[in-house]
Amino acid sequence: MVKTAALVLAGGRGIRAGSAMPKQYREIAGTPLLREALRVFVNHPAIDMVGVVIHPDDEARYENAATGMRLLPPVFGGETRQESSFNGLRALSDFAPDNVLIHDGARPFVAPDTISRVVNALSNDSAVLAAVPVTDTIKREKSDGTVGATVDRSGLWRAQTPQGFNYEIIMLAHERFRSQSLTDDAAVAEAAGHVVRLVEGNEDNFKVTAPEDFKRAERQISASRGGPLGETRVGSGFDVHRFQPGESVILCGVEIPHDQGLAGHSDADVGMHALTDAILGAICESDIGTYFPPSDPRWLNASSEIFLAKAAELVAQRGGSILHLDVTLICEYPKIGPYRDRMRSRLSEILALDMGRVSIKATTTERLGFTGRGEGIAGQATATILLR
Hints:
30% of the residues lie in helices and 28% in strands. It is of the alpha/beta class.
């Protein structure tokens, strides 16, 4: 099976963006720009691993921006973009990817279908460039600031990222041309004599460079969270499991010592089961039992992490992202409070979601009903997602 890595370059200083903080760590609509760029790759089903190249001075900023995401250890960049790419590619060698997509961390709006087009093109080509055709009239300037000529725009494209490559080919090309200053990784591949295939990018996939670009980015995110560029959906889920003899229960991925266990075909994690159904409901998919029927021996004693990850994968396939999760656990015992933050951390890790977007609450039924009588535990959940 082909293994594809994504390498996101975020080692620049971004001084043209008009701030002392490097632009990739500035927030747009409450989220670091870099996190927006990483999110699409982390959630894309065709990407097996994601690595990031950062500046040595930005370790703390990076850790904050990447909290909860499944990423390879960060790599320090070099003096130039080309050197940073080489450092990142060299670090990937331990993971032996077949292909690699290289993306600029200052482009937070790459669309999932753009990534898919690049990945699919690598089935037949060794170097692929996402780009958009030039549609504006192009003028060449003279030294005095006047128009010197009108340039024929036919066949002209504006290069974007991600740029995709056979890993061994681009690694060897970088090693060969390390002493030269080339503008991007596609240029490195060209210099090595490789044909670079063009695939369609997207106009929204712009590079945040100047102060006004942040205003555009804010408008784009605001529109995508309820305007014509996106749709916000909410789903709910509910699950119940009865107690059985045992020594612990698993709730939201955390094992909690208890004088009983929970009965179920899988690990009986009512929190994750309710949450999985909530996510599936938000995208109008079937329930958890359709994908993981209790009659299937494959799921006997299975970790519910598998179910939750599948729901997140379905969201990503729809070009969506999870915005917020809210889980309520209903029981008399065990006490949930001491484990609440561990549960939040585990869910955020599985879903590559900020821990600040995951809520875990607990309540009782004042000793009424089956949970009040200590016969089992119930869980209910709400998931808010954005479909683009």
